[in-house]
Amino acid sequence: MDSSLLEALRQLFGSRLRENVSLAAYTSARIGGPADVLVEVRSAEELAEAAQQLWALHVPFTLLGGGSNVLVSDRGVRGVVLLNRARAVRFDAASEPPRVWAESGATLNDIAQRAVRLGLSGLEWAASVPGSLGGAVYGNAGAFGGDMAGNLISVDLLHRDEGRQTWPVEKMEYGYRTSFLKRERPPVVILAATLKLAHGDVEAIWAVMNANRQHRRNTQPPGASMGSMFKNPPGDKAGRLIEAAGLKGTRIGGAEISTLHANFFINTAQTRAADMKALLDLAQKTVFEKFGVLLEPEIELVGEW
After folding, report:
1. Rounded CA separation 86/101 (Å)
2. What domains, with CATH codes, occur in the chain?
3. What are phi and psi of 47, to 5 degrees?
4. Four-residue CA torsion sign, 273, 275, 277, 279
5. Residue tagged active-site, from 40, 46, 243, 298
6. Cα(287)–Cα(216) distance, integer angstroms
7. Residue 177 is among the residues annotated as catalytic for this protein
8. Alpha helices, H only, 15-131
9. pTM
10. Phi, psi at residue 157, to the nearest 5°?
């Protein structure tokens, strides 16, 4: 990064700015090279201000929340990484339907846990789902028959050219693990979102959440991973196809296709991003050659590849 630009960023962000920071600690797979600059934001207002300042300086930036569903390259990320720690959550149980407003850095699991303590249902599917609300809104995260499309009322955005906006759920144009934002990539950052809930029996909600957690433990591997690597193709499961292709347990370097669930790739020991990407490519190529199905990655590649 140009020294004069770096000095301008130091002046803007002060002690919040860190240089040449490894991103491995900030991703669920524990993989990733250095960010030129890392700046932590702790509120939606700080996030909006930082984004506006970086756009004004024409500095590219990457927003990182919970760090799931991303594979950060070994070379790292040029420009600025904004580490989203904006986690305010406010419930309105008196509205109809009851709802929750949360900043985009809040974790889905935290929101779901707090909802059940208030006797509010609708996010049972989200308990123990990794990642932040912003990432879930962006990618239409889902599990156990629920997804963000079914809960979202509206999303608060900051657009580089058009300022702050509130989009109703319809404008997100949700599909399976995708959205208008993910497909079209307009210059926006997600600041917060409002989700609809429902009144329910606390014990019954806990029972569903605990059953979901146990199913996840039984069927998904522990350890450092990005979550599901590929989207399920229509009428089939990515994990089934990878397993049927004979790839369960396959390793490249320290990256391994899980022996428990073949759509999870595990960082077993100081894995390089290049090894994980090579394993992803191998699975995609082999499944296509054997079954004629081109698996679409659910994860996103971040940084210099």
Report:
1. 12
2. 3-84 (3.30.43.10), 89-218 (3.30.465.10), 221-302 (3.90.78.10)
3. -65, -45
4. negative
5. 298
6. 25
7. yes
8. 44-57, 108-117
9. 0.93
10. -125, 155
Please give the Cα distance from 113 to 7 (Å, whole number): 42
- CA atoms of 171 and 184, how far apart (whole Å): 12
Q: Does the pLDDT value for residue 170 go beyond 90?
A: yes
User: Rounded mean pLDDT of 275-300?
Assistant: 98
Catalytic residue among 228, 243, 256, 258: 228
Nearest to 36 by CA among 70, 61, 16: 61
CA distance 189 to 194: 15
Mean pLDDT of 250-276: 96
pLDDT > 90? residue 129: no
Closest among 103, 82, 177, 99 to 138, alpha carbons compared = 177
User: Catalytic residue among 103, 104, 124, 177, which?
Assistant: 177
Using DSSP's 3-state secondary structure scheme, residue 193 falls into: strand
Contact 225, 264 (CB under 8 A): yes
Average of pLDDT values for 20-45?
Answer: 97
Tens digits of per-residue pLDDT, 67-122?
Answer: 999 999 999 999 999 999 999 999 999 999 999 999 999 999 999 999 999 999 99
Angle between helices 44-57 and 3-13 (to 10 degrees): 160
List the beta strands (DSSP E) in the chain: 17-22, 34-41, 61-64, 70-72, 77-84, 89-92, 99-103, 120-121, 142-143, 146-147, 152-159, 163-168, 188-196, 198-199, 224-225, 251-252, 255-257, 265-267, 300-302
Output Rg (C-alpha) for the chain, integer angstroms.
20
pLDDT, position 270: 85
Output the CA–CA distances (angstroms, integers) from residue 242 to 49, 265, 286, in the order listed.
Answer: 44, 11, 8
Arithmetic mean of pLDDT over the chain: 96
Is the alpha carbon torsion for 40, 43, 133, 135 positive or negative?
Answer: negative
